[in-house]
């Protein structure tokens, strides 16, 4: 399969400092206007600017990365469908390189035909998912103070369990109780304390009941989808006016709000730079893909996908099947949109940290929500 060639290179903060210290007599060349860069017309200017701000990617490099991610997503789907020993995929965070893991060396040639770098591992993705599912009950019982989250990590071919210093013993006991092999689990010490991101302080997104605020996710048939923890079935909303037709939380974290006939539903996302990013589908991206999210508290921020099928222990209960990212978010951003280029990925669920110091944010995948309620995305 054809891979897009890189036209530019990302510039790190360290390299900028070096240049500033050794070549002070030379001014940096001015960046070309976006309308002069080939391919820029396919992406919203706000998206490219946010990727430069948050990921250090010049516009040319961001365009190459987004094009590569689209092609990699297609190969990822083929790999999952055709490889019996499929063990996951991920992208190199710097280079445009797709990795495919297989547990059977006999399938290496088939995987290489997809244009990927192949890694041979011990366990299939199905086996790891079985282990993760077995861990859900005992790790949930350990509580969020001990075990904030866990997920399947294709790069290590293990289930990664985030534990606090005080919770390590409880996590080890949960692994033993579940009958999961110890070498199939990686315990990572963390200080994160995930919380849902609904905000009871006034804002300008949509409001639930007496005034709690969340963010619209994506427009659908006759309403929008958002986070389930934002409101229960039957709750009413304003700005826009509507009603929660369905809501699932905990376990999942999604909801469907049907809005009144006077509202205009648009297949786009606010980029908080005076424009909108068109939504054109919901093809799942890969681990390592660059993504950006929109929310009514902190606006538009970018980062990368770290894992799929993460389980998070919130105070209200465990939520499974989430996308783990290093994109920042804050209270009030809940329910908001996560995009990979123009492809809808998820709805902001919760996380730890903030947009001043960074953090970890989890997202409810979009496609299961559409399937649960028989919905279609509004696209443009």
UniProtKB/TrEMBL annotation:
Residues in the signal sequence: 1-27
Recorded superkingdom: Bacteria
Single GO term (MF): serine-type endopeptidase activity
A cellular-component GO term for this protein: extracellular region
Biological process according to GO: proteolysis
Keyword Hydrolase: yes
Keywords: Disulfide bond, Hydrolase, Protease, Serine protease, Signal, Zymogen
Catalytic residue list: 229, 253, 334
InterPro entries: Pept_S1_alpha_lytic, Pept_S1A_streptogrisin, Peptidase_S1_PA, Peptidase_S1_PA_chymotrypsin, Streptogrisin_prodomain
Peptidase S1A alpha-lytic prodomain domain mapped to chain residues: 123-182
Alphabetized Gene3D superfamilies for the sequence: 3.30.300.50, Trypsin-like serine proteases
Disulfide bonds: 214-230, 292-302, 328-355
Record family assignment: Belongs to the peptidase S1 family.
Name by which UniProt lists this protein: S1 family peptidase
């Amino acid at each position: 399969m054809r891979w897009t060639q890189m036209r530019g290179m990302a510039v790190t903060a360290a390299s900028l400092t070096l240049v500033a210290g050794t070549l002070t007599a030379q001014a940096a060349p001015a960046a070309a206007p976006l309308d002069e860069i080939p391919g820029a017309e396919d992406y919203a200017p706000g998206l490219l600017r946010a990727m430069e701000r948050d990921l250090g990617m010049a516009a040319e490099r961001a365009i190459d990365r987004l094009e590569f991610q689209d092609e990699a997503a297609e190969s990822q789907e083929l790999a999952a469908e055709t490889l019996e020993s499929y063990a996951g995929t991920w992208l190199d965070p710097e280079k445009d390189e797709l990795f495919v893991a297989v547990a059977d060396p006999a399938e290496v040639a088939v995987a290489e035909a997809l244009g990927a770098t192949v890694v041979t591992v011990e366990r299939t993705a199905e086996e790891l998912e079985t282990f993760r599912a077995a861990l859900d009950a005992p790790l949930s019982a350990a509580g969020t103070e001990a075990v904030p989250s866990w997920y399947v990590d294709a790069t290590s071919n293990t289930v990664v369990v985030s534990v606090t210093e005080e919770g390590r013993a409880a996590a080890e006991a949960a692994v033993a109780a579940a009958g999961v092999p110890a070498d199939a689990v990686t315990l990572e010490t963390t200080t994160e304390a995930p919380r849902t991101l609904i905000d009871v302080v006034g804002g300008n997104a949509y409001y639930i009941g007496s005034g709690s605020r969340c963010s619209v996710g994506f427009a659908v048939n006759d309403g929008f989808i958002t986070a389930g923890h934002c409101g229960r079935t039957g709750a009413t909303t304003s700005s826009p006016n509507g009603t929660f037709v369905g809501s699932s939380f905990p376990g999942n974290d999604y909801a469907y709000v049907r809005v009144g006939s006077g509202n205009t539903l648009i297949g786009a996302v606010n980029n908080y730079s005076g424009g909108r990013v068109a939504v054109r589908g919901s093809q799942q991206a890969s681990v390592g893909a660059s993504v950006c999210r929109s929310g009514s508290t902190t606006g538009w921020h970018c980062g990368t996908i770290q894992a799929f099928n993460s389980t998070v222990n919130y105070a209200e209960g465990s939520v499974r099947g989430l996308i783990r990212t290093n994109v920042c978010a804050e209270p009030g951003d809940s329910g908001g949109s996560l995009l990979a280029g123009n492809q809808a990925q998820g709805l902001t669920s919760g996380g730890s940290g903030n947009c001043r110091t960074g953090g970890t944010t989890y997202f409810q995948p979009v496609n299961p929500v559409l399937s649960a309620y028989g919905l279609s995305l509004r696209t443009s």
